[in-house]
Amino acid sequence: MTTLVLGATGYLGSHLAARLRRDGPVTGFARSEAGAQAVRALGAEPLVGSLDDEALMRRAFADHDSVVWAAQLMIPAEQAFVRRALGWLAGTGKTFVMTSGTGVLSERTDGDWSENTFAEADPFVPRKGLEGRVETENLVLGAHGLRGIVVRPPAIWGHGGTAILTEIHRSIQASGAACYLGRGLNCYSTVHVEDLAELYALALARAPAGALYHAVSGELPFRVLAEEIARHRGVPARSLDYGAAREVFGPSSTAIIFAASSRSRSPRARAELGWAPSPDRLDLLAECADPRYLAAAEKLGSWVSEGERG
To answer: Exposed (0-12), middle (13-18) or buried (19+): which is 306, by Cβ within 10 Å?
Structure first.
């Protein structure tokens, strides 16, 4: 099976390309020669160009058995590309895997605990502003003449790539403390990036058309993560109200991450694909001490976009 990974130079996409090449040839899409070099380092063949180059994309889709969407675009642009992609694959019987996310399940709790947790088949009300992503999911799940699959990951961690931990480290630069919002009892469910990559491999090999999968290995409240980082850094942990959190984390990260709860379960992935996280990749607390998060936080500075403070 030949696979095209769109987004192969990103955090998730690079791990997908590295894992999927064990099952057959992998081509990784890149926008530049620097990206192409990164793809080659994964053992994959690079395809350099633009997603807007329809002729290039059509040829690439024709040359591969499966296409995995792991790129990051704004929701309208993502939906427009996926619509085109499904059209190129219609009637071929080939596979298209869309990466979504459990942000669509999230709810604002301002740091409070939520009992709500969702399996793949559970009904839910999409988070305001993310309705378009659910529409895109449904386009893939209902596609005809191909095998459309959706993977909806929770917060992904491992190898220094977890935005939540980077943000908490960065809050120390901004405030002198490892911060969380309110009581900090809210959380996103989590999965290690290598376990998630294994789920994609299983889905490509076994999933029926129209399948949607979660991939969950655990969950920890934001307060617990902040307190663990504070312990390693030798600083206090601190609760922030919503206004102060906007100043420290920025409006987007506050609303999407630190004010939200997104708890999920993955019974379909476990039962249908035989997926399970590795017992050696369950300790998110140990990840808090990885020095790569501090390095990433220092690179970003006290806040990435001063214009977002408004």
So the answer is: exposed
Phi, psi of 140 (to 5 degrees): -70, -45
- Parse the chain into domains and list their residue ranges: 3-156+190-213, 161-189+218-262+280-303
Burial status of residue 294 (CB atoms within 10 A of its CB: 0-12, 13-18, 19 or more)? buried
Side chain identity at 57, as an amino acid letter? M
Confidence class for position 307, pLDDT limits 50, 70, 90: very low
Closest CA to 152 of 138, 142, 166: 138
Predicted local confidence at residue 310, as pLDDT: 30
Phi-psi map region of 43: left, alpha, beta (phi>0 left; psi -120 to 50 alpha): left
**Hey, what CATH topology would domain 3-156+190-213 get?**
Rossmann fold (3.40.50)
Residue with tokens 């590795």: 278
Q: pLDDT (tens digit, 9 = 90+) per residue, 248-259? A: 999 999 999 999
d(C-alpha 169, C-alpha 300), whole Å: 11
H-state helical runs in the chain: 11-20, 33-41, 54-62, 75-89, 131-141, 163-175, 193-206, 222-233, 242-249, 251-253, 267-273, 284-287, 291-300
Look over the chain and give the mean of its residue pLDDT values, rounded to a whole number.
Answer: 95
Q: How far is CA 297 from CA 69, 80, 188, 237, 285, in A?
A: 28, 33, 20, 17, 18
* DSSP reduced 3-state for 97: strand
